[in-house]
Amino acid sequence: MNPPGPRPLRIGITCYPTYGGSGIVATELGMELAARGYEVHFITYANPIRLDPGLPRIHYHEVEVATYPLFQYPPYDLALASRMLEIAEWQQLDLLHVHYAIPHAASAFLARAMMADKRRLPYVTTLHGTDITLVGSDRSYLPITRFTIEQSDGVTAISEHLRRETHSALGVRRSVRVIYNFVNCDLYRPARAPHEGRPRLLHISNFRPVKRAPDCVRILARVRESVDCELWMAGDGPDRGAAERLAFELGVHGHVRFLGKQDHIERLIPQCDVLLLPSEMESFGLAALEAMACGVVPVATRVGGVPEVITHGHDGFLEPPGDIGAFAARVAALLTDPDLYARMRWAARTTAEERFCTSIIIPQYEAYYREILVQ
Ligand code: GMT
Fold this sequence. Notes:
Layout: E1 10-14, H1 21-35, E2 39-44, E3 58-62, H2 76-90, E4 95-99, H3 101-115, E5 123-127, H4 130-133, H5 142-150, E6 154-157, H6 160-168, E7 177-178, E8 200-204, H7 213-223, E9 230-234, H8 240-249, E10 256-260, H9 265-268, E11 274-277, H10 286-293, E12 297-301, H11 306-309, E13 317-319, H12 324-336, H13 338-355, H14 358-373
Parallel strand pairs: 1-2, 1-4, 2-3, 4-5, 5-6, 6-7, 8-9, 8-11, 9-10, 11-12, 12-13
Helix pairs in contact: 2-3, 3-5, 7-8, 7-12, 10-13
């Protein structure tokens, strides 16, 4: 008989449960860990969007925030800390894993301190992007962000670029482990057969200004000067209205479909040919990776951690932010040169399989948890 392996861990995961890459990564990590035998407890203010709560060993605990007329701003971070402590006690959690530093690392810090006279409750903070590069660097949040990152029992960043920024922009001195984002290559797969109709460009985002979603409409208009194609825009957010208006102004509104929020992005992506990621900044670019796993070639900006995911000219193209002409030229080349497209499509799939599959990345988190628990 084999000796028993280590006891499956009990992990509390906190993230932003709405549409956004950090919440998606946290949710998919939780589901992958549960599939490997972990008990995973999501401690969030709403059910995370991609979470399948019916899966074995997945639990959801809502954070309720009491209001009071005195509060102009109900203190969510305190309610979260109390809930983390409660769930850690009731469910014997081994550690807390928070995604996006603000305010989750501060809440975990408080929960750990409140538990300290009973037992150790370590917390791991995973940094995703604007928690370092934008919000975390703002004067109003910088000291608490730096402090609660420094105090974490473990810190991971989703790219080398973000790790460097954490040290240089935020002044964090402790070590930060890079664990790249991942994709489930069994779920995200190329289509079995080419889709019907015209070539199709795809953009997926939360339409925040940093994503430069209206650029996708400009790129479509430019590509359509030489190639008949259409654009699908998946997601929703502040710039969606501006993108729709622009489509009308540029006379391409009949060639753009705004799909809104999508629950099964893995079914949508394989129906497209090229992914557009024209962001001002991306610490990683999860949508590009998901597209690559589906053999959909990304054309993205050369910013942040994106060059760690896409190798220019091999499995995608990288261009400067706002360079509509350069983006359009790359898209037109992909849509009119079948050999180029076929080569890059399979290179993209291979990159996803060989560098970013769950089977490669999830064990890195597991090993990191074990390191922290024996400290
Ligand atoms: O930092 C953010 O903007 C939030 C975050 C999110 O929730 O959408 O996005 C970041 O995390 C994603 C998942 O790790 C990365 O793929 C995105 O590149 C990153 N966004 C930015 O850096 C702007």
